[in-house]
Write a structure and sequence with these properties.
The complex is a heterodimer of chains A (about 110) and B (about 120). Chain A is about 0% helix and about 50% strand. Chain A is built from no helices and eleven strands. Chain A has strands at about 5, 10-15, 20-25, 35-40, 45-50, 55, 60-65, 70-75, 85-90, 100, 105. In chain A, a hairpin with a 6-residue loop joins strand 4 and strand 5 (about 45-50). Chain B has about 120 residues and is mostly beta strands. Helix content of chain B is about 0%, strand content about 50%. The mean pLDDT of chain B is about 95. The chains are: A mainly beta (about 110), B mainly beta (about 120). At the A-B interface, strand 4, strand 5, strand 9 and strand 10 of A face strand 5 and strand 10 of B.
């Protein structure tokens, strides 16, 4: 089973600041890494797939990078609606499909 | 617009059974693979099960293998999860999720349904 480790667990930032979230895989997932955003009381939403591709309707301030075992989600300038929990997920080698433990981006 | 609406959740005693349903609309249901993903209260996301478009391929997480059964009815645009031998740690919100790439990409999610296992 591929284990995904996200860091930091919590990121405290102000609106307008840049957010950098990390996801590390226990073995290579090639580029089959996705990012999801989840707000309280809501279902997750796909943001980024295959490491770098924005999903339909996702603003350009969200970008993904990386390959192999190290990945980054960057939010270039935080908007109020971006404060949420973010999960990474791999589909390179499954079953099982696995998620990281999440990074909470909170208002400082 | 893609819509996935779960139903059938609720409170059940340990060892009991429950059947979740997911009604789909807004896309050609019979051409998409589907998943169930769950989230325990205050915890992260856990993949539960996968079924291909024709039901020819099915996978389960080890934690539910032999207790849960995934199925679908393409004529009714519906996905199901039969859950038997429920345990306390099965308590979670269960999401019906469309596989965007036919396999492991979760591109559309239902709103989720809460299953509580407690005596």
């Amino acid at each position: 089973e591929i284990v995904l480790t996200q860091s930091p667990a919590t990121l405290s930032l102000s609106p307008g600041e840049r957010a950098t979230l990390s996801c590390r895989a226990s073995q290579s997932v090639r580029s089959y890494l996705a990012w999801y955003q989840q707000k309280p009381g809501q279902a997750p939403r796909l943001l980024i797939y295959d490491a770098t591709n924005r999903a339909t309707g996702i603003p350009v301030r969200f970008s993904g990078s990386g390959s192999g075992t190290d990945f980054t989600l960057t939010i270039s300038s935080l908007e109020p609606e971006d404060f949420a929990v973010y999960y990474c997920q791999q589909r390179s080698n499954w079953p099982p499909l696995t998620f990281g433990g999440g990074t909470k981006v909170e208002i400082k | 617009e893609v819509q996935l609406v779960e139903s059938g959740g609720g409170l059940v005693q340990p060892g009991g059974s429950l059947r979740l349903s997911c009604a789909a609309s807004g896309f050609t249901f019979s051409t998409y693979s589907l998943h169930w993903v769950r989230q325990a209260p205050g915890k992260g996301l856990e993949w539960v099960s996968f079924i291909s478009s024709s039901s020819g391929t099915i996978h389960y997480a080890d934690s539910v293998q032999s207790r849960f059964t995934i199925s679908r009815d393409n004529a009714k645009n519906s996905l199901y999860l039969q859950m038997n031998g429920l345990r306390d740690d099965d308590t979670a919100v269960y999401y019906c999720v469309r596989a965007g790439d036919g396999t492991g990409l979760f591109d559309s999610w239902g709103q989720g349904i809460l299953v509580t296992v407690s005596s």
